[in-house]
Amino acid sequence: QGLKPIVPTESPSLIFGTTTKFASDLPADDSFLGKNKVPDLQKLFQKADGLPVHLKRGLPDKLLYRTTMALTIGGTIYCLVALYMASQPRNQ
């Protein structure tokens, strides 16, 4: 009788017909990823120009930052006005 293995010894059949390609199997000259932008961005963000990192990319960052600040301040004012109006008793 003895103990029987729980895991089957045969390999399971393939579910998908495609095979997996590993990065080491690809040819070295196959450049499907495009240009590596990380070194350029590192130079940009690590430059000592006194700007905070969220404003280093110029005009788009400034617009995004100012829009976010305007919406934050506007939302705070709106919440305070809504709280003030909710705290007042209604006249009958």
From TrEMBL:
One record GO biological process: mitochondrial electron transport, cytochrome c to oxygen
InterPro entries reported for this sequence: COX7a, Cyt_c_oxidase_su7a_sf, Cytc_oxidase_su7a_met
Chief subcellular location: mitochondrion
Record's keyword annotation contains Mitochondrion: yes
Entry keyword set: Membrane, Mitochondrion, Mitochondrion inner membrane, Transit peptide, Transmembrane, Transmembrane helix
Pfam families: COX7a
GO CC, any one term: respiratory chain complex IV
Membrane-spanning segments: 63-86
Superkingdom as given in the UniProt entry: Eukaryota
Subcellular location field: Mitochondrion inner membrane
Family: Belongs to the cytochrome c oxidase VIIa family.
Protein name: COX7R oxidase
Organism field: Crypturellus soui
Gene: Cox7a2l
